[in-house]
Design a protein that fits this description.
The chain is mainly α and 89 residues long. The protein has four helices and no strands.
Length: 89
């Protein structure tokens, strides 16, 4: 069964709706990116607060970076478990 041709007003309305949806999707993508960035750094305030309460001896910059990288890569819980295993040894 042949499809009826769309009216020019319908095409314009469809195109306008499509443009609005694309703009809304772009906005949602930006919000998602911002939320993901915030989630990836959500533990920083907690870690910094804990570091302020604990005395830490001299440390090389490379060691500090390695510790921070391990937390970033493996997560705080995994690093904490590993550190607990070092204390038990």
């Amino acid at each position: 069964m042949p499809r009826a041709a769309s009216k020019p007003e319908d095409l314009e309305a469809i195109a306008a709706r499509r443009a609005a949806l694309i703009a809304e999707l772009a906005s949602v993508d930006e919000q998602l990116k911002a939320a993901e960035l915030a989630a990836r750094d959500a533990g920083r305030p907690t870690l910094l607060a804990a570091l302020e309460r604990i005395k830490i001896g001299a440390m090389d910059k490379s060691d500090a970076k390695a510790i921070a990288s391990a937390i970033g890569q493996h997560g705080g819980a995994a690093v904490a478990r590993h550190l607990e295993s070092l204390q038990a040894a």
